[in-house]
Design goal:
- By secondary structure, the protein is mainly alpha-helical.
- About 55% of the residues lie in helices and about 0% in strands.
- The chain has one domain: Non-ribosomal Peptide Synthetase Peptidyl Carrier Protein, Chain A (Orthogonal Bundle), CATH 1.10.1200.
- The relative contact order is 0.17.
Length: about 100
């Protein structure tokens, strides 16, 4: 399995994690754009700062990754793509 396929699978998994951990009952995986800024008011997810904290905790629990400071979290949580790239690098040892 190549890294591109792994990354695409990871994006779907992250979307499912967001929906489940934030209890977004009216959102489907297919509703979430990989490139959309997650915390824009116009985003279908309608996320706020409390959601950001819950999402950080969910990512840390599921993938055993660390988002220790606000700047790192802000950069990582921009979109599905940025989250997936971060998790992929951290869990595959590419960040070291």
């Amino acid at each position: 399995m190549n890294s591109e396929k792994n990354l695409e699978s990871l994006k779907i998994e992250i979307k499912q994690l967001i929906i489940e951990s934030l209890n977004l009952t009216n959102v489907k995986v297919s509703d979430i754009d990989d490139n959309a800024f997650l915390f824009e008011p116009s985003n279908v997810l309608e996320l706020d700062s409390v959601d950001a904290l819950e999402l950080v905790m969910a990512l840390q629990r599921k993938y055993n990754v660390r988002l220790d400071d606000q700047n790192t979290s802000r950069n990582v949580l921009q979109s599905i793509n940025t989250i997936a790239e971060f998790v992929y690098k951290e869990t595959s040892g590419l960040s070291k």
